[in-house]
């Protein structure tokens, strides 16, 4: 699967200056913004003209049955990922988007920044009175925001040419269109080119939330990614079909596309990862329990250690290990960097004073790596793959070394079964690049078998 990431303002490779990029999701057959809220807002408000739509599971379902809407979506300049469904669809092919850029959260932040820049906004859509109520809320929370005009999406939208003339006469820099999917996107696709505004956004129910017509879910529900359940409970009759049937239909369609576009090796490798990690977690439960007890008996602190690592395509994830060091190990690392026994980027020391007695045993026996089976189940790692690198290591990579990030990191791999820490950094890179370019299920199975011998010998484990 080929991943292409672009600066969506200029359709050129992403630049270090902005970091703004887009990612193609095969499961959706769409290219979506892959950036945090701040970066996305900066890009949307940058000089130039653009149209932007929010894409969620419901939008994708409408695309599947409405060709004209689908064409309008593909002609938009910017598509923003909205909701847990899109995130899950991305994960089906190993793609992790930086943020959920839903309109309800993004629009107030965007308008606050627009106000600071002296830009004005026109609110168009909703039932009669909704745009005016939303404008009142916005001027209360951000008095310096210029509301260029308001218009409802019913009687006020009957004559589109009159709407265009009114918006242009207002001098609005930003136009918020809230007429629901697919009407708002179809209107923008047809009339945005006639507008003088630099940004035209289709925002769904955002004006209803601002006007107080619809109550948002509590923050705890939103953090749990369950806002759709709250909305279903508030409006069961209107939203039951969209959420209960629509979400299942969306995920089934996304899964079908993901399987069709995923190489057979990737599917087989994932099946092997899930099978082995599940079986290992069950059978090794006593080992997990005994190790956790031993760690807690020797030192205070949690038995598990979480550390940020760099995964496939440079995505960060929290890797799990049994804690083999004292709790202040990270703070003390700077003191002992000069004592590394390994040349190159990766630090390793046979006589690291931060390692506990239990830690030395579980490192030599590789028991400390076992919690990474959970990372495998999550899809963040594979059983076989390159060593997951630390962010500070990746920051020092020579250009050639980035090729090892083309595949998921693994619990075991070619370098691990060839001597682990005894292997130089440069040689490790060559091994990982060779694996990334020629991996097969047969090779993975061979590495797994060789891992048992490597663990038994303990060579290079410290």
UniProtKB/TrEMBL annotation:
The keyword Protein transport does not apply. The keyword Chaperone does not apply. CDD domains: Glyco_transf_WecG_TagA. InterPro entries: Bact_transf, WecG_TagA_CpsF. GO terms for molecular function: phosphotransferase activity, for other substituted phosphate groups. GO terms for biological process: polysaccharide biosynthetic process. Residues 270-455 form the Bacterial sugar transferase domain. It holds the Pfam family Glyco_tran_WecG. Keywords: Exopolysaccharide synthesis. NCBIfam families: wecG_tagA_cpsF (TIGR00696). Belongs to the bacterial sugar transferase family. This is WecB/TagA/CpsF family glycosyltransferase. It comes from Yoonia rhodophyticola.
